[in-house]
Each structure stands twice: as structure tokens, then as C-alpha cells.
Amino acid sequence: MQISRSIQTSWVLAALVWTSVLVSAHPSQQQAPTVRKEWRTLSKHDKSSYIRAVKCLLRKPALTPAFNNSGVISRYDDLVYTHIQQTFEMHYTGHFLAWHRYYVAVYERMLRDECGYKGAQPYWDWTLDTPADKWASSPVFDPITGFGGNGGFVEGDTSNPFEVPGRTGGGCVRDGPFAGIPDLVHLGPMASVTYNPQCLKRDFSPYFAGRYLAMNQTQLTLAAPDFGSFDRIVEGSPSFEASGVHGGGHYGAGQIGDLYVSPADPIFYLHHANLDRVWWSWQKLNLDARLTDISGPILMMDYDNVKGGNVTLEFPISVGASAANVTVGDVMNIAGCGKNGVLCYEYDSVYTLQG
Ligand SMILES: [Cu+2]
Question: Keyword Signal, does the record have it (predicted)?
């Protein structure tokens, strides 16, 4: 497994003491919740404003303190770096969804406060881009009004167990706003944080997307009776044969299939906004109870609590230099708006449980 093969790296990562520079207050200082919408429903103007703001973060200098051969060049990299640093601390854990909820909210605030973006973080409802034969023509991948499409095909190795089934790309993206930039990505692959200029790569697997992102999988996820089982269905297991909606988006699209450096592709944030929307949809099915329902291991894959306990509402979340630390309890309510937590946004629509 990719996970166990890299588990030694995790202890190195865990040993790195992450000193967080608290630069600003919580991402919630608006009066009324902002409303997140699906990418394809944004006007042409709003789409280009969003992409312009992403490019602005790619140009702004990083806040993370410099280190030898640092690949943390831009404000955008600050968050990629944080994700790499904490990869083995917040995937396959009880705080996976809470951590990524806060992470996306901090990104959204950076776009707004530091790059003049006026809208909310858009989400990507990938159920609309299934079955598999619709995947590559998703409006999210549009070369003019989206993030560009697949990378060129690079021969793989089908005997490699880490090769994503049904992959069709693997090279640099060939069109769209992030194509033709040889040093768009500065970090990775995997846990490397030294300066390594690369193009943005994608490796679509329409098969994988169709298998794990269709509405039947979302319905299966929403039907979970409690948070612990809900989270495990979302995350799936680290096997291509037992993925969930989380892996479906990552491996369906490619570059974001690298567990560590996946936020290097700006579509990561649209994918995770929709995962957050799946969680919020599930919470709304029984909001009173589910605003406080949290469980799952503190330590990666420790579902039987052999090495540690379960996450609680007091569990801390850090996203490094980009924002103040919060707790899981602070982010349980997306529309807390300072009264019930630090977040202040809504979704224009949620998934409902059918039949
Ligand atoms: Cu992640």
C-alpha cells in the first residue's frame, strides 16, 4: 500500500515541530454567511475573477519562514506546504473532514482578503460529470471558463500496484489558465518540500470517477447513521477497490492523486468544497445532533484505537502560517458566524437522501 510504504516518512513528519505564526483572526468576520455555488453556475465574469485571484495567490510571497532550499515560494505554497507537513496527521483520522473544512475556508479567505475576490469558494458537484464518458468534458475542465483539462498521456507501468486503474494522462496540463507554466508547482512530489519547479500535471481516470463519484455513492455516504461510519465511507480505504467520494475526485483527476501535494492543483479546493458540502448535507439531515457528532481516531488508520484515542470537539486544528489555530468544535457549524464557531458560509443547495 502507498500508505504503509510511506509510513516511515510519517514519523519524520510527526517529529517536525510545526511552529505556527498566527497572522490573523478567524476567517469568519463577515456579517452574513457567504453562499458557495457550483462552478458551472457562476457567471463567466465570476469564473474569471476566481481564477484571477488564484493566480494572485500564486504570485504573492509566502509567509512560512524560509528554510534551506525552501520550495515554499508563494502564498499559495503556504497551504500546500501545510498539507504536506500534516499529511500523516489528518488523513484517515476523525478530524479529516474538520481539518479540510477549515483549510478550504482559510483559502477562501485568502482569495478574498489578500487578492480582492468578491465571491465565495465555488464547489464542484462531480455527480453531474458522471458516468465516465462525461468526465473529461466537465465544465470544471473547460480550457476557457474552467481550470483546463487532462495532462498529455505518459506511459505507465500496469504492474505497479499504485497505478490508478483507467488512467489516461499523467503529463503537464495542455490547455487552460495553468498550462504552459513550467514552474507552477514548487513542492513535491510526495513529501519533498525542497524547491522543485514543475508544471501542473493531471492524469484523468474517467473509469475511477464514474465508479466512485456517481450519485449512488453519494447516497450511500449520506445514509451513514453516525459520524464515525460517515467519515469512513467518505474516505474509503487506501485501496483502489474500496475508495469513496474523497478518493474518487483525487484519482479521477490526477495531480490531486498525490496524497501529499494534491492542493497544488487549484481544483483541489473545489473538490474539497464539495466533500464539505457532502458533510454539511449529512449534518443537515439531523442538524441538532450532528453539530456535535464527531469521532474517529487521532492517529492515522487507528480505527480500533490501538495506539491512541478518538478525536473530540476540543481537538486542535492548525493550518500553519496562514491562520489562527482552531478546534474541531469551532468548525462543526459552517454558518456559525462568530456565535457558534469561526466559519460563516452556506451552500446554495445540499444533497438530500432519496427514497
Ligand atoms: Cu488532504
Answer: yes
pLDDT in tens, 21-80: 333 345 545 478 999 999 999 999 999 999 999 999 999 999 999 999 999 999 999 999
Spatial neighbors of 194 by CB under 8 A, at least 6 apart, are 68, 69, 70, 71
What distance in angstroms lies between residue 267's CA and the mean position of ligand 1's atoms?
13
Q: Residue 311: inside a domain, yes or no?
A: yes
284, part of any domain: yes
Q: Do residues 319 and 64 lie in contact, with contact meaning Cβ atoms separated by under 8 Å?
A: no
Evaluated on CA atoms 100, 80, 341, 272, the torsion sign reads negative
CATH code: domain of residue 318: 1.10.1280.10
Q: Domain span at residue 274? A: 2-347
Asked if the structure places residue 9 within a domain, the reply is: yes
Q: 87 C-alpha vs ligand 1 centroid, how far in Å?
A: 7
User: Ligand 1 centroid vs 91 CA: distance in angstroms?
Assistant: 6
- Rounded to an integer, the average pLDDT of 113-135 is 97
Task: Band the pLDDT of 229: cuts 50, 70, 90.
Answer: very high
How many angstroms separate the alpha carbon of residue 181 from the centre of ligand 1?
A: 24
**What's the structural domain count of the chain?**
1
Report if residue 352 sits inside a domain. Answer: no
Pairing of strands 345-347, 34-36: parallel
Give pLDDT tens digits for 176-220: 999 999 999 999 999 999 999 999 999 999 999 999 999 999 999
